[in-house]
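Give me the 3D structure for Sugar ABC transporter permease.
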Amino acid sequence: MSNQALDRTGARKAPLFGLPAVAVVALLLYLPFVWTTYVSFTDYDGLASPVWSGLANYKAMFSDPDLIGALVNTLLWVVGMVTLPVALGLLIAVLTYGHKWGTWLRLPFLLPYAISGVAVGVIWGFVLQPDGALGQALGFFGLPGAHTGWLQAGPGNTLMMIVAVTWQAAGVNALLFVVGLQSIPAEPLEAARLDGAEGFSLFRHHLWPQLRPITTVVIGLSIVGSLKTFDVVWVMTQGGPGTSSETLALSMYKETFVLNDYGQGAAIALFLSLVTFAASILYLRYQLGDAREQG
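Predicted structure for Sugar ABC transporter permease (295 residues):
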């Protein structure tokens, strides 16, 4: 058999080697998504057969004040996670990069990332409870706020939980920014220093533009992660008091596994998936378009 015939035979058989992987992806990803989409249009309690209800779940979702509040809290998480952990991570990276003890200085900020979101919720729940560590410290120094219920009212409870997650996420963001700093060629920076650039001027005009690719990655991950926020909120407040700190992910969980309204939970899950997908696509398109204009 000629080499050309062997090549044609191999080309025809090559797709067969990908079939197992395609089957696994279809089984674990696509089929559950199709099933969830179908359930979102039904009245289903997880036991009896689903009963088609059309758009009833979506109408109920957008007319429910609690779910509207969960959407607002989710957007608050997006804003908070795109600003605080990213800004703090960038600050840590810039201040410690090139320092003799830079690795050791970043280590305390990186260690919290090694623990789970549940552990973060437990730790900060102890810190922020009315008679917790923060209140006792403020009382010891005679400062105001010793008896403040940090998690007892919204939106302040959401803001405090964003601070808790910032404590966990800032370190890994700093590590990513350090990787970006290490990829910047040394020669242009040396030339800029010879021209008198230093401090904030050096950062703004020479470092920051070079960090654009890694910044895109960090902010993109922060957006997706904040839209799916669940574990910290569940451990610290369970969405309360009432529903004041619920996120869409938490509402989805409650509707499905607490209230046994699988149809409503599936509608929220599908809506959250579409929001996450749309936010990711729009953000990447904006970044790529802006990069082309500058390029």
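The longest strand covers residues 42-43. Let me know if you want a second pass.
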